[in-house]
Amino acid sequence: MTVEVAPRTMWRGDAATDSVRAIPEETPVALTYNHTTHAVMLATPGDLRDFGIGFSLTEGIIQRGSEIEEIEIVQAGAGVEVRMWLAPDRIDALTVRHRRLAGPSGCGLCGLQSLADAIRQPPRVAADPRFTPANVTAAMAAMPAGQELNQQTHAVHAAAFWHPARGMVALREDVGRHNALDKLAGALARARVDAGDGVLLLSSRISVELVQKAAMIGAPVVVAVSAPTALAVRLAEAAGITLIGIARGDAFEVFTHAARIVAAAALGGAAGGTAGNDPGNAGGNAPGNDRGNAPGSTSTIAPGGAPGSVDMIGNRIGARGARATVARTVRHVA
C-alpha cells in the first residue's frame, strides 16, 4: 500500500475542522544481492521491481538488465526486501559501491564509504539529440497529469521520461527524488527504452546524485522544475548532460550544453532529434515482465513490483530452492 488516510485537524483562521488526509507511505526497502544486503532505503513501497533494477543500473552494479538473473519482492517484518540474484561476473561490482548504512528518503548518497564515491565521475553521455523550447515546455506540461500519487498526497517526487514522438513514456513517483529516478530507470530498462532519445523530467531540485544517475542511463537532457546545485552543474558539464532548471510555464534556464536546445526554425519545424545510445547499454536491456501492478504510477510502461511477486530474469530460469531470511540490524542516518 502506497497511501494511508490519516486523521487531521485543519485550522483556517480561528476555525478548526476535523477531517482526514491521504499521506504517502514510507517503508524501509532492503536491496539484497545473492543473499547479502547492499543498501536499505526509505522509499514508497510501489514499483519495487523497477526500483531494484534501476538502482542496480544507476549505481553501476550492473551494466544491463539481463545481468540480474532473478528478482523477488518479499514482505519482511516492518519493511520489504527486493531480493536480486546476479550473474557471477557482476558480484565483484558490489564491493565497489558497497553501502553500510541506511539511506533516508531524502538522501541519495547516504551510506557511501568515501568522499570519492559521493562525487564519482559518471561516464560521459554519448547521445546528442536536439530539442526545441516547445519540446521542453510540452514535456513539463505533460508531467502533472501522471503524478497520481502526488495529486492524492501533495508529498512525493516524480521522475519521468518524455519522447518527442511518443509523448510521456513513463513516470514514477516516490517520497525520495533519487528513488523516483531509480524507479524510472528500471521501468525504461524493462521496456527496452533508450534514454538517449528523449528528455528526463524531475519534479525536484537537481542535486548531484540525480545527475550521476541520469548519466548512468545515458540521458542527454535533464529538465527540472527547480534549480540545480553548483556541484550538479559542474558534474553535468563534465558528463555532457544538458541541464535545465526553473522549467515553469513557457520559461526555463539552460545551465550546461545549451546546443541541444534550438529554435524550431533551426530544425525546420521538426520535433527534436533521436540520436540515442546503443540499446545494449545500461539503459537499454530489459529484465522481467510487467507483473505486480501497484498504485502510484501512471505511464505507458506498466508498474512493476509488489510484495510476493517473483521474476526470473536472465537467460537461465530455474528453481533455486528454499532461501533463508536473515535478520539484519540497520542503523539509520539522522
Model description:
This protein has 8 helices and 14 strands. With 334 residues, it is an alpha/beta fold. It has a domain at 133-267: Cytidine Deaminase, domain 2 (3-Layer(aba) Sandwich). The strands form 3 sheets. It has a 6-stranded mixed sheet, with helices on one face. Strands 9-8-10-11-12-13 form a 6-stranded mixed sheet. A two-stranded antiparallel sheet has the order 1-2. Helix 8 links the parallel strand 11 and strand 12 (242-248).
SSE blueprint:
Elements: E1 3-12, E2 15-24, E3 27-33, E4 36-43, H1 48-58, E5 68-76, E6 79-86, H2 93-96, E7 102-103, H3 115-118, H4 133-146, H5 148-153, E8 157-163, E9 167-174, H6 177-190, E10 199-202, H7 208-216, E11 221-224, H8 230-239, E12 242-248, E13 251-254, E14 310-312
Parallel strand pairs: 3-6, 4-7, 10-11, 11-12
Antiparallel strand pairs: 1-2, 3-4, 5-6, 5-14, 8-9, 8-10, 12-13
